[in-house]
Amino acid sequence: MSLPPEHLATLTAILQTGSFEGAAQALGLTQSAISQRLKALETRVGAQLLHRTTPCTATPVGQRLAAHADQIVLLEARLGDDLSGLTPAPQTRLRLAVNADSLATWLPAALASLPDHLFDLVIDDQDVSHDRLMRGEVLGALTTRASPLPGCDVMALGLLRYQAIASPDFIARHFATGITPDSLATAPMLQFNSHDQLQHRWIAQATGVALRPPCHRLPSSEGFVTAARLGMGWGMAPEALLRADLMRGTLTLLRADCPLDTALYWQWSRLLGKALAPLTRALRRGARNSLRDLTK
Hints:
This protein has two domains: 1-89, Arc Repressor Mutant, subunit A; 90-296, D-Maltodextrin-Binding Protein, domain 2. Helix content is 43%, strand content 20%. The protein contains 13 helices and eleven strands. The protein has helices at residues 5-17, 20-27, 31-45, 60-84, 100-103, 107-112, 130-134, 168-174, 181-186, 198-207, 221-229, 243-248, 277-290; strands spanning 50-51, 57-58, 92-98, 117-123, 140-143, 152-166, 189-191, 215-217, 235-238, 252-253, 260-269. Strands 3, 4, 5, 6, 9, 10 and 11 form a seven-stranded mixed beta sheet that branches. It has a two-stranded antiparallel ribbon with strand order 1-2. It has a two-stranded parallel ribbon with strand order 7-8. Helix 1 (5-17) packs across helix 4 (60-84). The model is unreliable at 83-88 (pLDDT under 50).
């Protein structure tokens, strides 16, 4: 299917600015022209591409087309680089699926080393983020999946270490008799979202049993640690986020001898491998500086 580049650019502009008005200003068009272009694209595709909310958001088909538009821009920037010997066009937009704990710890420093790119980060659990890459919604993903998806390459990054933590008062209330299957079965647990299985994996590692404790769902890495500090529950948090709280005594490890290491991998479209090479190098450097070695 051949799609007019100007129509794809219109969809991208609406999503980037959040409105038809913003897209019109960005592209130097009237709002009527923006509406006409979007309607023509939806007619050609045969599906609704946007939710007309404030801000506008993409439907699943719209997400797929927006990612396709990003791929075109990235490939054209790379082609210009190959033909002219110049650096890629500035502000190339990269839509990536990443896990919240990487974004809260090591990832920003890696991305900051690429000033000529704009990043559109989709937050998802590391166990399922590769699904977005498989559906074509993103150009690459940080994931726990070690085997490459069809049409993709994969690079091992390292181990992100987690620790089970809670406030001293919470431990006194719920674990006075120790960290046992009985106490873990009733103590409120913190969970990022329904895909987050870190706590359940730690329970199995620490006790050898499978439990389903009551839980709060808090989709924020920093909010997760704050909730634990305030005594809402216990949960798994990246070691890098915990140093200050552990030093102050506002958080305590449930089991100092029982960390949980999660392997992270970078998967990306093989078709875009050359264009994404600077990003791949940046992620390798960032992981080498911040994550634990997978081979140790």
